């Protein structure tokens, strides 16, 4: 359950965080980012750390001072927040879905604070899209929607991203939040289908999924298929599980590196604002 006072915390965070950090991704203001759709706005004096390539040497020849070209984007960015609401996200304390939902609300709210448009969707065996909005009042609608979501079903990630691709315009930041306990090849194919956008994958796990806290004779039930497995959890099996999970995470990270996307692994015991700061910086 997402409470209204969470937005007040986000307001304080927005005031504290370095504006330059925030505007790296959420910025309709003048930007030093150069790319398709950018137009020259004005100039400013060069400061250490600025992109040396943006120095206007003609002005330097006339004034003997270094000036940087400043650009303004013709279009604002749309921030897409896509959250997994399949049955496996109903695990943990707090539930992985609740944690993911608060992250999603946070990114949408911070985008709106910086005058960007956001769109969000949830996916499991179906894709549910919340239409693009501007204005902070629409975050309340997003919260209300997420608080009513019934976490269920299997994750059809590839099918959902194929459908979502049709909704993308130009210049999009796509934040996908899931436990990503899926076939790495399916994840890779889904990212390829999304096209040439800035994509951030945030894998949310419960701490007990990274370090198993069960042992002995147990009955395990698959959250998405309801399949039941009776087994004995030995120290050796725990080690094998943790090794395989580590390989899975490494595979996801490599896929994102290969596709020039960003990958983050977080656990639900991590303070939310630590995650925001890490990702935005």
Task: Write down the Rg.
Answer: 21 Å
Are there runs of 5+ residues with pLDDT below 50, and where? 27-37
State the secondary-structure class. Answer: alpha/beta
Widest sheet, order of strands: 5-4-3-6-7-10
Helicity, in percent?
Answer: 25-40%
> What's the SSE pattern?
HHEHEEHEEHHEHEHEEHEH
- The second-level CATH architecture of the domain at 76-205 and 263-280 is 3-Layer(aba) Sandwich
CATH superfamily annotation of the domain at 76-205 and 263-280: von Willebrand factor, type A domain
Individual helix count: 10
CATH fold descriptor of the domain at 76-205 and 263-280: Rossmann fold
Give the N-terminus to C-terminus distance in angstroms: 27 Å
Secondary structure tally: strands: 10
Instruction: Write down the overall geometry.
Output: globular
> What is the beta-strand fraction?
15-25%
Task: Name its key features.
Rossmann fold, 6-stranded mixed sheet, two-stranded antiparallel ribbon, 39% helix, single chain, globular, 281 residues, 10 helices, alpha/beta
């Amino acid at each position: 359950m997402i409470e209204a006072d969470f937005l007040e915390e986000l307001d304080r965070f927005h005031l504290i965080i370095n504006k330059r950090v925030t505007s790296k991704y959420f910025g309709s203001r003048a930007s030093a980012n150069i790319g398709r759709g950018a137009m020259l706005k004005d100039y400013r004096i060069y400061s250490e750390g600025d992109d040396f390539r943006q120095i206007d040497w003609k002005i330097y020849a006339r004034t003997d001072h270094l000036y940087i070209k400043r650009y303004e984007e013709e279009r604002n960015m749309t921030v897409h927040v896509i959250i997994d609401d399949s049955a496996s996200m109903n695990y943990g304390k707090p539930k992985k879905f609740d944690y993911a939902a608060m992250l999603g609300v946070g990114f949408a709210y911070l985008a709106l604070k910086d005058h960007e448009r956001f769109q969000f969707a949830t996916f499991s065996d179906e894709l549910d899209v919340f239409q693009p909005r501007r204005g902070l009042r629409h975050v309340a609608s997003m919260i209300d929607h997420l608080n009513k979501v019934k976490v269920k079903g299997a994750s059809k990630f590839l099918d959902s991203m194929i459908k979502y691709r049709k909704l993308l315009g130009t210049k999009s930041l796509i934040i996908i939040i899931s436990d990503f306990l899926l076939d790495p090849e399916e994840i890779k194919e889904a990212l390829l289908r999304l096209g040439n956008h800035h994509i951030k994958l945030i894998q949310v796990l419960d701490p007990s999924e990274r370090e198993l806290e069960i042992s002995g004779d147990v009955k395990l039930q698959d959250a998405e298929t309801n399949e039941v497995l009776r087994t004995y959890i030995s120290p050796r099996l725990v080690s094998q599980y943790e090794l395989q999970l580590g390989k899975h995470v490494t595979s996801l990270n490599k896929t994102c590196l290969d596709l020039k996307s960003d990958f983050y692994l977080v656990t639900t015991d991590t303070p939310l604002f630590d995650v925001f700061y890490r990702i935005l910086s």
